[in-house]
Design goal:
- The chain is an alpha+beta fold.
- The chain has a single domain, classed as Alpha-Beta Plaits, CATH 3.30.70.
- Helices cover 33% and strands 26% of the residues.
- Strands 2-3-1-4 form a 4-stranded antiparallel sheet, covered by helices on one side. The protein has a two-stranded antiparallel ribbon with strand order 5-6.
- Helix 1 runs antiparallel to helix 2.
- The two termini are 17 Å apart.
């Protein structure tokens, strides 16, 4: 499984661009993939093809009425593991022996779950 961290925003639409970002989050949310929105971007967990298609959809939605767009995307791959959105944070907190500030005040993203290895019935990549 892969993690994708990305941020995308128009450069020609003034200072306040949250409504453009909100459009991308509608697409991310509708994808059914696990994700976390944070102050500087969004992290999504999925297969490489799913994540690339998601980026393309977000870009197309923004390009519909924005002439200049900036996008930063970073991928992290670890063979055989899923649930890393939460487990990577949990691992650091465990090593420190305490909870860290990981979400906006007043928001609840859910409990930090353990990382789990994929079993034999779960496939990572299609042979197609």
């Amino acid at each position: 499984m892969y993690l994708l961290e990305f941020s995308m925003s128009p450069l020609n639409q003034g200072e306040s661009v949250s409504h453009y970002v909100a459009r991308s989050l509608e697409i991310v949310d509708a994808s059914g993939l696990d994700y976390r929105l944070h102050a500087m971007g969004t992290i999504v967990e999925g297969e490489l093809d799913e994540l690339c298609e998601l980026l393309k959809k977000c870009f197309a939605a923004m390009a519909a009425d924005c002439d200049r767009i900036t996008c930063s995307a970073k991928f992290d791959y670890r063979r055989g593991y899923r649930g890393r959105l939460e487990s990577k944070v949990a691992s650091v907190q465990q090593k420190l022996g305490r909870q860290l500030k990981t979400e906006e005040p007043g928001q609840r993203m859910g409990p930090l779950g353990p990382q789990r290895r994929m079993d034999e019935s779960e496939t990572e990549l299609s042979d197609e």
